[in-house]
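sry for the spam today, last one i promise. struct tokens for design, 302 residues
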């Protein structure tokens, strides 16, 4: 089952993959978007902000804006999410297939081969999709934190884009691009590598292998893939959250204050010590685990 759980790109129904997949991933984005809003607010909160944990952030948003407050910047994100996701998924699957083929002559163990191929595919696909993701990130994150902890108010995504372009030009929309690549590419690589290897351990633990003729039950498939997604989310979030925190603060605060990466790190450590670099770890872990697991389970039925 471990081998057959890899998606065969050549045999995949591309129309179903893109059309149905886009709908499924849009649904997942709707469900998990409030988690991103909470994470972003935690990461940019100043020292004197009262809302310093996820619960208080949610409570504050609901009190001031109601449910719409949990979806600040959502329109901008959903507009860019579909093309970015198409780029990501296409690059992911084609690169994964090519990686597996390149690794065949080395006669590596199945677990090692899966970790390397999934890791390379995750990094390559993330790198390509950042061209679309970064401007969306810059705009949506500014909308997520507007009016919070002293941040500027905007009338919408176009207003953010207009002001950023006026003050810094096109490169303003790509502020933090290097850090985004350094965050999302390793994060994606670690997620997919952890998922690919942990899933194989799970199949061994569940007793699936080479001796069972019958297809594993649906409950086994869901359990193995959900466990793999949670392990991958925990691993990736623990390793890359410090970079994500720095990137978010740079993108949200950089236009007004012209701050540097060094200054962001100094401010975080001054306010919270080294744990300041892990602001938003809980929501990020939840989001990465849930998003990845949902995507994997959706794959099974596309």
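last one done:
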């Amino acid at each position: 089952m471990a081998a057959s759980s890899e998606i065969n790109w050549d045999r995949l129904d591309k129309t179903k993959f893109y059309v149905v997949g886009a709908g499924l991933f849009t649904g997942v984005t709707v469900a998990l978007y409030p988690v991103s809003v909470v994470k972003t607010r935690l990461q940019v909160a100043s020292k004197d902000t009262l809302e310093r944990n996820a619960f208080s952030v949610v409570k504050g948003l609901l009190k001031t804006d109601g449910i719409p407050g949990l979806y600040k910047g959502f329109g901008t994100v959903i507009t860019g999410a579909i093309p970015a996701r198409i780029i990501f998924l296409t690059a992911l699957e084609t690169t994964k297939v090519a990686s597996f083929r390149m690794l065949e002559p080395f006669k590596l163990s199945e677990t090692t081969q899966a970790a390397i191929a999934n890791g390379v595919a995750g990094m390559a696909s993330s790198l390509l999709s950042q061209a679309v993701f970064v401007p969306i990130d810059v705009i949506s994150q500014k909308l997520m934190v507007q009016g919070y902890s002293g941040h500027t108010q905007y009338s919408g995504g176009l207003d953010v884009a207009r002001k950023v372009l006026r003050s810094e030009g096109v490169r303003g929309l790509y502020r933090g691009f290097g850090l985004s690549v350094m965050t999302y590419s390793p994060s994606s690589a670690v997620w997919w590598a952890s998922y690919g290897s942990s899933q194989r351990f799970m199949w061994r633990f569940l007793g699936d292998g080479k001796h069972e003729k019958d297809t594993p039950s649906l409950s086994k498939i869901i359990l193995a893939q959900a466990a793999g997604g949670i392990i991958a989310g925990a691993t990736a979030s623990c390793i890359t959250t410090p970079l994500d925190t720095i990137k978010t603060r740079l993108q949200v605060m950089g236009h007004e204050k012209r701050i540097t990466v060094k200054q962001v790190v100094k401010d975080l450590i001054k306010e919270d010590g080294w744990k300041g670099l892990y602001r938003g770890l809980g929501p990020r872990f939840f989001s990465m685990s849930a998003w990845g697991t949902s995507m994997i389970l959706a794959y099974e039925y596309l």
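The two ends are 17 Å apart (CA to CA). ok im logging off now
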